[in-house]
Write a structure and sequence with these properties.
about 30% strand; Glutaredoxin; two-stranded antiparallel sheet; 5 helices; seven-stranded mixed sheet; alpha+beta
């Protein structure tokens, strides 16, 4: 998918201030230069909380290069609680029927602790302002992932 156009979408979610709204890929890219679009399994689980808090803690270092938005199958109300509990400072989008997650290859079969299930696959896409996917991270580990993204963004901007 790198080098291809990212799939346009429309999802409900909350913005960095916790206000509910409708979000599109083109809207998130508008004026941003780039977008870090990350897909995660579930609000308030250990790995997802770690990843979200890493984005929160490093957002000021990422914003010169890209905007950040997270997507999961959780409902908007769950996102509001997740945001409030952890003071998250970027949009969280809701894809309860996982249509967008499927389009991005972030939903499917995965193996965890020897058990195969169907669900969200932790993935991240860096999308250029023109909508082109410039980097894809598939089946990532939550710990250290944000640092890899920052290193990549600095490398292509430097």
């Amino acid at each position: 998918m790198e080098g291809e156009q990212a799939v346009e979408f429309t999802l409900t979610g909350i913005d960095e201030n916790g206000q509910e709204g409708v979000f599109t890929l083109s809207g998130l890219l508008e004026g941003a230069g780039r977008l870090v679009l990350y897909f995660y399994p579930r609000d308030n689980t250990p790995g997802c909380t770690q990843e979200a808090c890493d984005f929160r803690d490093n957002l000021n270092r990422i914003l010169p290069y890209a905007r950040v938005a997270g997507v999961s199958a959780d409902k908007v109300e769950s996102h509001k609680r997740f945001r409030d509990k952890h003071a998250l400072n970027f949009p969280l989008l809701s894809d309860p029927v996982h249509k967008v997650m499927e389009a991005y290859g972030a939903w499917g079969q995965k193996t965890s602790y020897g058990k195969t299930t169907t669900g969200a696959i932790r993935s991240t896409y860096i999308i250029a302002g023109d909508g082109t996917v410039i980097k894809r991270y598939k089946a990532v580990k939550a710990t250290g992932h944000v640092q890899k993204i920052m290193d990549y963004l600095r490398g292509i901007s430097g």
